[in-house]
Amino acid sequence: MAVIRWLLTASEAQLLRFLVLGLLILILGAILPISAVNVFRHR
């Protein structure tokens, strides 16, 4: 990871961070409603 960070410029690292955060938010946005539905179905 340190080598990858060193190769990237500051702007590229920032862009990559935004992309990763966006993906995490999308995954959480998809998983949380599904898990909530599963909890309601089990009750």
- Can you count the helices? 2
What is the terminal-to-terminal distance?
44 Å
Question: Tell me about the biggest sheet?
Answer: none
Identify the overall geometry: rod-shaped
Stretches with pLDDT under 50, minimum 5 residues = none
**Rg of Cα set:** 17 Å
**pLDDT averaged residue by residue:** 84
Transmembrane segments: 15-40
Keywords: Membrane, Transmembrane, Transmembrane helix
Task: Describe, in short, the structure shown.
Keywords: Membrane, Transmembrane, Transmembrane helix. This protein is mainly α.
Structure description:
The protein is rod-shaped and about 50 Å long. The chain has helices at 2-7, 10-42. It has 43 residues and is an all-alpha fold. It contains two helices and no strands. Keywords: Membrane, Transmembrane, Transmembrane helix. The chain crosses the membrane at residues 15-40.
List keywords for this structure.
2 helices; membrane; transmembrane helix; transmembrane
Spell out the blueprint of helices and strands:
Elements: H1 2-7, H2 10-42
